[in-house]
Amino acid sequence: MKVAVAGGTGTVGQHVVAALEEAGQEVVVLSRGRGVDAGTGEGLDAALAGVDAVVDTLNAVSVRARAATEFFTTTSRHLLDAEARAGVGHHVLLSIVGIDRVEKYGYFQGKLAQEQVVRSGDVPWTILRATQFHEFPGQIMSAFGGPVAMMPRMRCRPVAAREVGEKLAELAAGPPRGAVPELAGPREEQMVDMARRLLRAQGRRRWVLPISFPGAGGPMRGGALLPEAEGPRGTITFDDWLATSGIRDTAGGRAER
């Protein structure tokens, strides 16, 4: 079986590629570094020749509604159009748990629009919604320089990116299933607390400032991003991830509160 992975060098995409290769599948990585741009459609036709399934793990840079929606809908339409021309029989999309309950957050508006593009397209599809990854607080903090790191007040059930990648690879190897049960991590966490534990593990001193997103803060604090139904659950906790991800304690280091 031949599977293409859009965003195959990213946080989740790299794990999809690894899981597919371990299972003996032929993998094509769709990335601009390899001459394929889903944003413009450049290189897609050649890259998808002979491909049986496509996994889309692309990630928008902007969280603003207009920019995120433009990115997700444009890349998805280019992928789906090229897949239809190539005779690809399965499109697998990674989405996010709870985005239809926090609609005022721009990034989630973009993901909802992307889901609709996939659902209304001509290529049979599977959509997997997953919760936030263990890497998420670090990614947020990296966007802010200086001694203060702003972190959303958010109840979440973080999942290991590796386990998400493995699930996507499993789905890609099977038939299209539509919307499948949501994937979440093994236990609930608070995003602010995760950020502080990450800083302690890194031995870094920064002040974590809890914030609420306008219009979306209430639902996020109230658990709108937690799964509401039974589904697959990862086994790697955030503390497990801290212990095995290469983050090393520094003697005497502590995070500012």
Name the poorly predicted regions.
249-257
Question: How many helices does DSSP assign?
Answer: 9
**Helix fraction?**
25-40%
Overall pLDDT confidence:
92
- Within the CATH hierarchy, at the fold level, what is the topology? Rossmann fold
Largest sheet: number of strands, sense, barrel closure: 6 strands, parallel
Strand order of the largest sheet: 2-1-3-4-5-8
Give the name of the CATH architecture: 3-Layer(aba) Sandwich
Label the structural class: alpha/beta
Radius of gyration: 18 Å
CATH class: Alpha Beta
Look at the structure and name the CATH superfamily.
NAD(P)-binding Rossmann-like Domain
**Span from first to last CA?**
50 Å
How many DSSP-defined strands?
A: 10
How many separate structural domains? 1
Q: What is the global morphology?
A: globular
Elements, N to C (H/E): EHEHEHEHEHEEHEEHEHH
Q: How much of the residues is beta strand, in percent? A: 15-25%
Notes on the structure:
This protein has 257 residues and is an alpha/beta fold. It has one domain: 3-Layer(aba) Sandwich (Rossmann fold), CATH 3.40.50.720. It contains nine helices and ten strands. The strands form three sheets. The protein has a six-stranded parallel beta sheet with strand order 2-1-3-4-5-8, sandwiched between helices. The protein has a two-stranded parallel ribbon with strand order 6-10. α1 links the parallel β1 and β2. α1 packs across α6 and α3 packs parallel to α4. It is globular.
